[in-house]
Amino acid sequence: MKILFKICALSILLSSCNDGDLIVTNFDFEDATLQDCETQTQTVFFKINPEVDESISLIIETTDELFITSGTEEYTLNTSSNIVNYRLFGDEVTSSYFCNPVPPTTPVTTQEYIGTSGTVLLTSVTTLDDNDNIETVDSEDDMEEGTGDLDNDGIPNYYDLDDDGDNVFTAVEIGDDPDNPRDTDGDGIPDYLDIDDDNDGILTRYEDANGDLNPLNDVTGTDGPNYLNPAVTISNIVDEYRPHTYNLTSDGTITIEDLVLVGENETINFETFDFGSSDGIRNETITVFLEF
Q1: Predicted local confidence at residue 265, as pLDDT
Q2: Hey, which residues does 74 pair with through a beta bridge?
Q3: Are 259 and 235 in contact (CB under 8 A)?
Q4: Per-residue pLDDT averaged across 252-264, rounded?
Q5: What is the 3-state secondary structure (H, E, C) of 96-117?
Q6: DSSP letters for 58-93
Q7: How many CA atoms are closer than 13 Å to the CA of 67, on its beta-carbon side?
Q8: For the CA atoms of 149, 161, 243, 283, what is the dihedral angle to 10 degrees?
Q9: pTM of the model
Q10: Is the Cβ–Cβ distance between 252 and 282 less than 8 Å?
Q11: Model pLDDT for residues 211-252, shown as the tens digit of each residue
Q12: Quick check: 113 and 106 in contact, CB under 8 A?
């Protein structure tokens, strides 16, 4: 499909103004996959239409990690750092063209438009999950799986893999049925929220005889770990947290408002350009080392 612009022809989102005819071969990226690659100083987002060997790319110069928290970040386009390029090539173009640290010489660009102005909006919906199988709730209560922080370690319960800070992970303490969590001492407080699971007067975190930050492997006798055996009261003061991990996933959307693309003789204006979106544009495991 070819889009023909004559003098000042207008479409719903796209317009151009020039002294002659402008033919953009396709400019169709609706079905193209949004891809990206990163360096220490910039992130490149790009889409390729292999049917006609064209691409659209966006370079964001920043040392910040993108799509880390829910919300929208704005970047102003220019021609030196935050850059949009439309390119038509004389041959097949692949992702290595954009992710190669050395600027490639092939394929040859036959047509190019550069974004001289516009505002880039990076919108993220981010989820943090400790994979403990407990449903997150909208609550600030320290005893619920919300934004409360029972153990005051700086990580809210909903993505804290050890809600009570006793060095036994919540996914272990909850038992086989998250809807009916284990309560070893029957005090009405589930083990994963109980700092003394067997109610023997020794904190679960201190029932760590070998001091390896894992009370699960400290066993005296045949009745299971010491922290679940009220008959064993061996105490080893351990005031230290285990390393914490959680999963971060972000769905990202990129739009550009008031985009102006300038070619050799023509200018194309977009009121709103939908650059693309990607479910799981970030999907990674975060490890943090907490101070007690």
Answers
A1: 83
A2: 121
A3: no
A4: 96
A5: HHHHCCCCCCCCCEEEEEEEEE
A6: EEEE-SSPSS-SSEEEEEE--SSSSEEEEEEESS--
A7: 25
A8: -110
A9: 0.82
A10: yes
A11: 999 999 999 988 899 999 999 999 999 999 999 999 999 999
A12: no
